[in-house]
Please model this.
Amino acid sequence: MVVDVQRPQAAPRTQPPPAAHRVRRRSSEGTPLPWVLLFLGPMALGLLVFYIGPVLVTFYYSFTEWGVFGGVTWVGLANYAQVFTSPEVGRALLNTVIYTAIVLLSIPVALLIATLLSRRSLRFVSVYRLLFFLPVITMPVAIGWLWKLILNGDFGILNQALAAVGIQGPTWLSDPRTALISISIVGVWASLGYPIILFVAALQGVPPELHEAAALDGAGAVRRFFSVTLPAVSPTVFFVSVLTTIGALQMFDLIYVMIGKSSPVIPQTETVIYLFYKTAFIDNNKGLASAIVFGLMVIIMLLTLLQFRLQRRWVHYA
Amino acid sequence: MPETRSKALNPGLVLTHVVLIVGAIVMALPYVIQVITSLKSYQETIQVPPVLWPAHFQWGNYLEIFSASFPVGVQLMNTTLAAAARAAGQLLLGSMAAYAFARLKFRFRGAIFAVFLSVLMVPGQLFLIPQYQVIQTLGWLDTLQALFLPGIFSAFGVFLLRQYFMTLPLELDEAARLDGCNPFQIYWHILLPLVRPALVALALLTVVNSWNDLLWPLVVNSSPEHLPVSAGLANLQGQFVDKYQLIMAGAVLTTAPIILLFAVLQRQFIAGFATSGLK
Model:
């Protein structure tokens, strides 16, 4: 308000320099078109051909059927009707939602670890941070193979460890009851590092006086966490939840590696993107595949919108 | 001195260390298992109960994977070339477009930028079928350039660099223009050196994403000598059944370069990831 009132007074005094600026700016108002084309042209063309165009093309394909011998026929909403009624699509969506829900557990775990890492005068912080971050830069294919070995029902080290305490472990990845959960827990393991890095940075921004004041008021460590730390980092928690949800809904690599192409547990584990890949590039049913991937995009956008709506209730912006 | 002693006995601190050490073991152990398994003999990998430590380190596993069925050498080369080309393309074309949005004045600038940004909101798989068809039309299916062509164009890179260009003072351009620099000289000699931190962050993100990418290579390339090592390793599914010593050797060779890169450039990596929202 104050600024608005003052501005008209200040404006006449500073008028001359802006006027000079404006003259120069007008001469550059239109950068000559060849320069614009030189700088923007290559990227604009590439984005048009490989990204912007494909969105429209995929949307069109979602209303078509691809013949076995080539040829694309318009089928209206038939693909979408199939998306809504096909049990396989529904099952894949359910699997994806379960996977995403479990992977979101990485956020509270990451927040706990980041809080511990932020203790003053803690040693080996950089070693811990490095270890937790490693899976973020490790190839998901390598992670998939590694855990496939660990979870192997016969010679995997996990069941061996369980046997040592008298438990007969299941064949984790080929048992329909445990396969998806096993993969989801690997997903949690693999996605801890990124939120930890962001939380550690956010926690450094929490003023220590807040903690001291709360401690003087008699708040214990747990109470301080929920009343001071959590509200202060809630914008980061929100940001990380949105990104984790979007990423998890697009899961493909772990399923591809950990569950064999002919594994009997495919129906219990395949995600929407795995089904999309199979439909588009193995079965060559690109019309239905386009409808599937468009449906996923709508779900991602709705969930993101929902998260933005809900954030008003729990995210505190300082 | 008394202070350190009270800290050492603080139960909260002990608990902190216990939780962190257990966490660190859970994170690190799989990597240890990976390396040990890569040095086992075949018999040792499938033995029940499992052999924790190989009787003799089988360094030969690392030679065996450079064989015809899993040409890991060629595939590592494909992965490296594709990552380098993708990063180089993104840095050059992305910084040029970012400069245009940050500094040049032209009609529909805001609208075009908004269209670029809208690409960021679409899940990547939505582009796959038409991208595949463009590569097919060019006759480039199953080639090296197919691996990186769409990846050198990135709305995210433009956005990241444009934000960085915007922080540089306009006076720099003005001064250079008065000295007779044309827009390209301003871009190349004056501004580009100043956006280096953003270029490094974008390069690292692009290299890691390209290195680890699986779906796109699976879609466009099929012959083993044209696949990157990610797809090569994934396709061992079913071929090399149970030969975990070889698969783990391949995984170690594949992961090691990125981890080394990370170890050297840890600060830049984390800065890049922190600004990016991952992919």
